[in-house]
Design a protein that fits this description.
The structure holds two protein chains of two kinds. By secondary structure, chain A is α/β, with parallel strands linked by helices. Chain A has eight helices and eleven strands. Chain B contains eight helices and eleven strands. Chain B is globular.
Chain lengths: 303, 277
């Protein structure tokens, strides 16, 4: 069990961009979109059978032809001094029916991804996920950035539309990132890689829906493009966003009007510091959260 | 996490070229458990190895079944005179690849197993009066050819539907294929209203195939008696409850019942069989 590389491309000081599915699939859509736009080439995988239960069987005329497992694949793109390795995990390896990876298997997978980063001398690792936030779906999602080293903070402060945990009121710079998108950040720190997790905001009332949220993926990619100093056209994500937006609006109109009125007020919430005194007080914000929690199942932090 | 090898060998067995028959305890109609129990009983199976549960089963407590505390068991039995290894186990809830490879490790290295038979039940919406079929899925064209002389449904096409996952039996068949062990996954459709009980006819169907294929020379007169008794009980439930008779008549005419009717049929039959008629 381990890593299988089909080829060993010559790469110049690449960075690694990795993601697994999570809330709204924000991170994985961002990474997969960039991989697609750049036409990155597949060059390896993590062998799946020790991590995953198979996802599909094909039996033809009574003969088992193949068993398909969730994939965990590596891709590369040469970019004239800005080479990129992508890692995309189709599923998080979970144990005991949990939603996100944790424990021994998750740590093993994180380290296999970092083994590839080390082999190709990656100088930085990016991961991406979702930040569940008190925001409204009609506003532009911001990106919460979590580095694994203090030396990265000045750089992050230079990104547009990006906040650090300490900028978010009431958090005091604390929080957690559930699953492998977070764990990789920690495992990277342990092995001496600098790493940043970029999390696109998703409104708290959408976190439990079986919908992707490409609007936040676009925000993540804008930040990533800036950080990597590359320019790619993200119109493709706007098309996906329009389709999802219609479904979100349909869902939104089904919410009881008294709760919807409360949620409408989130359009005006500005809770990143420094902020002008907003049209919603702290007390009112608490009230909205309570109403939201009553109506929707509450789930924690980012992913 | 297990600190060592999860495989425990209690004694070496003298087998030269055996077959492995595997049944899961939680099968529909209790098929896997009953059929493997029957083989062990008839062929004097002796326990020789087991797989420790800690890596593979949730050990957060114990389940209670039939008033008794249960504990996951994964045991191997050798029927030496018949060159047969029987494996009986609960379905593991984690580390499936490691578990299934452990099964084949014991089978190959200690049981000299050359062929694998996996037992499974599937729900059927047919009446219990319809003859049981036996479906086979194999892991190579060669073994399919070998099975051509038996009364099996061998041409099944299947693809996992969206939102579902393959069975553990398919996973094992695939691993066996990778280890060049010819494998056959046998499926008996069981009437849905017997799924939580037992279905002696289904047991006989799969056991008869194994008897013929592996030349086990089993006398099934006791199982035939069990089938007669079960059929009598089911005839009595039909005569006592006209509504149930109507439902079964409709199934016999290949008509579907509503969800509510299915539920009523299951409850009445289960209650009746549990009370012994």
């Amino acid at each position: 069990m381990g890593i299988r590389l089909y080829q060993e491309p010559q790469l110049e000081s690449p960075i690694l961009v990795a993601s697994w599915p999570g809330i709204g699939n924000i991170g994985i859509i961002a990474v997969d979109t960039l991989k697609g736009i750049l036409e990155a080439e597949e060059f390896g995988e993590i062998e799946p059978w020790d991590f995953f239960y198979p996802k599909r069987v094909l039996i033809r005329k009574g003969v088992l032809e193949y068993l398909e497992f969730p994939s965990s694949k590596f891709y590369f793109k040469r970019m004239e001094g800005k080479d990129i390795i992508f890692f995309i995990g189709e599923e998080q390896p979970t144990e005991g029916g949990r939603m996100y990876a944790e424990g021994r298997k998750a740590y093993r997978m994180a380290n296999l991804v970092l083994d590839v980063a080390e082999k190709f001398k990656c100088h930085r690792v990016y991961t991406s996920g979702a930040a569940v936030a008190l925001t409204h779906h009609t506003t532009k999602p911001r990106v919460w950035a979590v580095p694994n080293s203090a030396s990265l903070i000045p750089e992050i402060r230079g990104y547009g539309n990006t906040v650090l945990m300490s900028d978010i009121e009431g958090r005091g710079g604390h929080g957690n990132i559930t699953g492998l998108n977070g764990l990789l950040l920690g495992a990277a720190k342990k092995r001496g890689f600098e790493a940043i997790c970029l999390m696109g905001e998703i409104p708290v009332y959408l976190q439990g829906l079986p919908l992707s949220y490409p609007k936040a993926s676009k925000s993540v990619l804008e930040v990533l493009n800036h950080s990597l100093k590359i320019e790619v056209n993200l119109d493709k994500l706007d098309e996906s966003d329009q389709k999802v937006e219609r479904r979100i609006e349909e869902f939104y109109q089904q919410i009881p009007s008294e709760i919807r009125e409360q949620l409408d007020r989130l359009k005006h919430v500005t809770y990143a510091q420094p902020a002008e005194p907003g049209p919603i007080t702290e007390e009112e914000e608490k009230g909205i959260m309570e109403d939201v929690e009553k109506f929707f199942k509450k789930r924690g932090g980012g992913d | 996490m297990s600190q060592g090898d999860p495989i425990k060998i209690y004694r070496e067995v003298e087998l030269r070229r055996s077959s492995l028959v595997l049944g899961w305890s939680e099968d529909g109609g209790n098929l896997g458990r009953k059929a493997t129990d029957y083989l062990n009983w008839k062929l004097k199976g002796q326990e020789f190895a087991e797989i420790e549960p800690e890596d593979f089963f949730s050990l957060g407590g114990v389940a209670i079944k039939g008033n008794l505390a249960q504990f996951p068991e994964s045991k191997f039995y050798a029927c030496q005179e018949h060159e047969l290894v029987v494996f009986q186990s609960g379905s593991p809830g984690a580390e499936w690849y490691k578990f299934l490879n452990s099964v084949l490790d014991v089978a190959e290295h200690h049981g000299r197993v050359k062929e694998l038979y996996i037992l499974g039940a599937m729900l059927s919406f047919s009446a219990h009066t319809a003859p049981r079929e036996l479906l086979a899925v194999v892991n190579s064209a060669e073994i399919k050819e070998v099975l051509s002389q038996y009364d099996l449904v061998k041409d099944m096409d299947y693809q996992t539907p969206p939102g579902e996952r393959p069975t553990l039996n398919s996973f094992l068949l695939w691993i066996a294929k990778g280890r060049n062990i010819p494998g056959i996954s046998l499926w008996v459709p069981i009437p849905f209203y017997l799924a939580a009980m037992e279905d002696a006819q289904a047991q006989k169907k799969v056991l008869s195939f194994l008897n013929e294929r592996l030349d086990l020379k089993i006398d099934f007169s006791d199982l035939d008696q069990e089938i007669r008794e079960q059929n009598e009980l089911l005839a009595r439930v039909r005569s006592r409850f006209p509504q149930i008779d109507d439902y079964i008549n409709r199934l016999e005419s290949n008509l579907m019942l509503s969800e509510e009717e299915n539920g009523e049929l299951i409850k009445k039959v289960e209650d009746f069989l549990r009370e012994g008629g």
